[in-house]
Specification:
The protein is of the alpha+beta class. The chain has two domains: 31-155, Gyrase A, domain 2 (2-Layer Sandwich); 160-233 and 243-268, no CATH class. The protein is 35% helix and 24% strand. The chain has seven helices and eleven strands. The protein has helices spanning 3-23, 82-94, 133-154, 190-202, 213-222, 229-234, 254-268; strands at residues 36-39, 53-62, 72-80, 99-104, 107-113, 122-127, 160-164, 171-176, 182-189, 225-227, 247-249. The protein has a six-stranded antiparallel sheet with strand order 1-4-5-6-3-2. A three-stranded mixed sheet has the order 7-9-8. A two-stranded antiparallel ribbon has the order 10-11. A hairpin with a 5-residue loop joins strand 8 and strand 9 (182-189). The protein is elongated and about 70 Å long.
Length: 283
């Protein structure tokens, strides 16, 4: 009889461990939709990727193309994680007057005209007026299920980078913010890591695998950085402490910072080889 309580305890422990493990698993068969967001007329790089979404809601809005007040079209409201909410705030402020496109497998499904900065991390997308209720619900359910599984798939594997002029150390990792929200953020000293990346290029530590039309684009964006070094050297005024070079840009420098992020990812995964890199679908 004394074995019965022990058996119950073992069964309970096994159930707990099974539930705990399943929380971190994902079912790839349930990922039927991988949404991404692009800025119309900009470089074909998503500003919101499939792992940035945390939830979606379906609703309707008035169809401004008709005079019928009862004519409504469907829309999806997406919630972004904290990292992407910060990013979308900057992107919408910089791209007022343009459109955001919701894209799945190369097909545009929705549009969001940028009329003002998005500050709450929620992006509404108007769907096609030809989409009926059955197909709108089908799309919504597919989105909902896929987003849940994508979060389970990526979780802490995806990290953001925040440039700071005065971090506690040249590099620090924050899993949560001050309010205990999960952010998975690398906080780095901008000057330190920009200069390390420049030195890597100068020392020929970086090689580009393909010699095609994108080579000129990469080389151009690597050269769009500006520096205060020349002015700093001309400055004869006494300065207390160390003088840090300030880096800006006179054009798009996405390729340079992509290289910086890649080198940072290798540093984070140092000792475990090159970190896993995944390419997401077609544009």
């Amino acid at each position: 009889m004394k074995l019965f309580p022990l058996l119950i305890l073992l069964i309970s422990l096994c159930s707990f461990l099974s539930i705990s493990c399943n929380r971190h698993r994902y079912n790839p068969e349930k990922i039927t939709i991988r949404p991404r967001v692009f800025v119309a007329g900009s470089i074909p790089v998503p500003i919101v990727d499939e792992y940035d979404f945390i939830d979606v809601q379906l609703g309707t809005i008035a169809n401004i193309l008709t005079d019928d007040p009862d004519d409504r079209i469907y829309a999806l409201w997406f919630n972004l994680d904290r990292r992407s909410a910060i990013s979308i705030q900057k992107e919408t402020l910089r791209n007022k007057g343009k459109n955001l496109h919701l894209v799945v497998a190369g097909e545009g499904l929705g549009i969001h005209p940028i009329e003002k900065m998005i500050s709450n991390g929620v992006i509404p997308f108007v769907l096609s007026s030809q989409l009926d209720e059955i197909n709108a619900l089908k799309l919504y359910k597919g989105m909902k299920s896929s987003i849940k599984e994508l979060q389970a798939e990526f979780g802490e594997r995806v990290r953001s980078c925040y440039y700071s002029s005065r971090p506690m150390t040249p590099y620090e990792y924050k899993k949560r913010d001050n309010n205990r929200n999960l952010i998975f953020m690398c906080v780095v000293d901008r000057t330190t890591y920009v200069e390390q990346t420049i030195e890597a290029i100068k020392n020929r530590e970086v090689s580009l695998p393909y010699r095609d039309e994108s080579l000129a684009w990469v080389a151009h964006e690597w050269c769009c950085l500006t520096s205060s070094m020349e002015n700093d050297e001309k400055n004869t005024r006494p300065v207390r402490g160390q003088t840090l070079t300030k880096y800006g840009r006179d054009g798009d420098d996405h390729a340079f910072h992509a290289l910086l992020y890649a080198r940072l990812a290798v540093e984070i995964g140092d000792g475990g080889g090159i970190p896993e890199m995944k390419t997401f679908g077609g544009l």
